[in-house]
User: What shape does this take?
Amino acid sequence: MDASRIARRYFVSGMVQGVGYRYFARQTAQHLGLVGYVKNLRDGRVEVYAIGLATSLASLRAALDRGPQGASVSGVTEEDAAIDPKFADRFSVERDIPR
Assistant: This one.
């Protein structure tokens, strides 16, 4: 991994499950050259973990604030994260959490 790459974790709130949000996040991340994952959480939020350049992560954050058509984002929180080599080669959509 390039030393200039960092990792961030985002938690997206609002109407963000069942509206294609995970696929929107994956497409956006891939377009920006980011790796990581996106998954639904039991509490109704979506978690996005991304590794890449700070500028690309800032662009991802802006896109996450908007979301796809049909979503209604009420907030995005962001935190620093450690780079996990398990997610260093692609951006994946994780399976839905059991209800």
